[in-house]
């Protein structure tokens, strides 16, 4: 079907699946300017190169992030004189249960929780030169969709798993396959509150599982505190521990320390002490959860891209340079938390006097969870330099100030751990050396990074990160 304009040329071409000649010729005629628009259904999702295309109207709902990316990609090619691509998506207006979370995650790489912040405050984590701008009404609709998806996610996950099993069969249900084929993130399955975890979801979907144990629900929720793990040695240990034949005595000293790190990251309360071997014994009594730990470790390994490098100056400490850690993991790895002692820690610095090393814990965004009087200004100046403000009690004449100002001649060294906000984990960014300092209570210090920040981390920690 064709609609002709005033000059007698067809301005619109509706291409059907049986119109072989039109289907073959229409893209070339559009590129030559003989057509102004094409209307198709599933014909040009891929395999058509139209760099000049600058407008997309989406009228077909899809639950496939891959297909959505292909459709989007028709308009994202660079072309001389083309400044942008206008996308008009009518599907979300038509279906209130449309999965914006999956489709936007496929485009941006953000989790659903990060997506809410990005929609509200702007997509600041996109690669240079890429921008997403949403009108206010669109923002409100997407936020409603995202929050609804969070509230209903467990019911949806159960239905999706049941449908997945109907297609794949019960014998081939693996966590990694289910997440990949359903375009899900582990964060959607593991939550600190409410129902959580792969074993719990399989039970509710009617899949065969061992009889539940008293600690199943506890471990299912606590595994959510492992989702940041990208230390390859730590995830490898998790894989080993999931094997039912692992013998406690075969663990070397470094693995024992890592096991203690894992135990205290999962066992969050400060009053809950115990050895890593005792923790592993508890886990051994929950065979489904022990197996699940290994499946989760495989998922985390697959999405990680770090090669293990010890932190310079902390080579004996089981931490990986630029890897992500919770505060309990760092304190346990450094020996501050032990099997016998879990001293509460809430300060921003920790001086380990026995080894003359001070750990600096930096949170860049202090808009949440901090007292109004605290207004530190911390940011990466460059990949090799970092601006840091000390605690309010530190001045040039205080013991802490003297440690900073007289280093490294006094034998003290400093290790910096950085996170963007309280909801995220710290990155082990390695040693820093004093460049210059000024002011007092707090002191403003510029550190030279012993290992320059990778480009990705510099972009996250830079003073320009929110602009």
Descriptive account of the structure:
The structure is a single chain. This protein has 467 residues and is α+β, with helices and mostly antiparallel strands. Helices cover 37% and strands 14% of the residues. It contains 17 helices and 13 strands. The strands form 3 sheets. Strands 6, 7, 8, 9, 10, 11, 12 and 13 form an 8-stranded mixed sheet that branches. Strands 1-2-3 form a 3-stranded mixed sheet, with helices on one face. It has a two-stranded parallel sheet with strand order 4-5. Helix 12 (253-266) crosses helix 13. It is globular and about 80 Å long. The chain starts with a strand and ends in a 6-residue tail after the last helix.
């Amino acid at each position: 079907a064709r609609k002709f304009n005033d000059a007698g040329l067809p301005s619109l071409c509706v291409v059907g699946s049986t119109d072989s000649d039109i289907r073959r010729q229409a893209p070339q005629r559009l590129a030559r300017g003989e057509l102004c628009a094409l209307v198709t259904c599933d014909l040009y999702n891929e395999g058509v190169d139209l760099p000049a295309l600058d407008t997309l109207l989406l009228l077909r709902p899809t639950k496939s992030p891959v297909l959505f990316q292909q459709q989007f990609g028709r308009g994202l090619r660079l072309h001389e004189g083309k400044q942008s691509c206008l996308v008009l998506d009518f599907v979300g207006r038509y279906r209130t249960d449309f999965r914006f979370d999956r489709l936007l995650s496929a485009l941006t790489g953000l989790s659903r929780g990060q997506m809410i912040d990005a929609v509200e405050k702007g997509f600041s984590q996109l690669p240079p030169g890429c921008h997403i701008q949403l009108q206010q009404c669109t923002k409100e609709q997407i936020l409603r969709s995202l929050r609804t998806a969070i509230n209903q996610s467990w019911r949806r996950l159960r239905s999706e798993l049941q449908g997945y099993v109907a297609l794949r069969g019960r014998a081939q249900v693996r966590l990694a396959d289910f997440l990949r084929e359903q375009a899900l993130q582990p964060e959607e399955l593991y939550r600190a509150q409410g129902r959580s975890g792969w074993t719990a979801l399989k039970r509710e979907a009617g899949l065969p599982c061992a009889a539940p144990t008293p600690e199943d629900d506890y471990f299912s929720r606590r595994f959510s505190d492992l989702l940041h793990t990208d230390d390859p040695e730590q995830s490898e240990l998790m894989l080993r521990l999931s094997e039912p034949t692992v013998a406690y005595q075969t663990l070397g000293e470094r693995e024992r320390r890592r096991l203690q790190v894992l135990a205290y990251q999962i066992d969050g309360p400060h009053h809950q002490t115990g050895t890593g071997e005792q923790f592993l014994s508890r886990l051994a009594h929950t065979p489904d959860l022990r197996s699940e730990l290994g499946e989760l470790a495989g998922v985390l390994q697959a999405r990680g891209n770090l090669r293990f490098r010890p932190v310079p100056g902390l080579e004996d400490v089981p931490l990986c340079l630029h890897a992500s850690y919770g505060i309990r993991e760092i304190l346990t790895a450094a020996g501050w938390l032990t099997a016998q002692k879990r001293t509460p820690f809430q300060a921003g610095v920790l001086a380990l006097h026995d080894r003359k090393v001070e750990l600096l814990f930096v949170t860049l965004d202090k808009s949440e969870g901090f007292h109004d009087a605290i207004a530190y200004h911390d940011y990466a100046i460059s990949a090799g330099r970092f601006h840091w403000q000390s605690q309010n009690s530190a001045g040039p004449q205080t013991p802490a100030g003297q440690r900073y100002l007289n280093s490294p001649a006094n034998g003290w060294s400093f290790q910096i751990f950085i996170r963007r906000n309280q909801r995220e984990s710290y990155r082990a960014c390695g040693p820093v050396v004093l460049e210059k300092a000024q002011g007092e209570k707090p002191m403003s210090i510029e550190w030279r990074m012993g290992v320059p920040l990778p480009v990705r981390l510099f972009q996250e920690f830079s003073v320009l990160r929110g602009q």
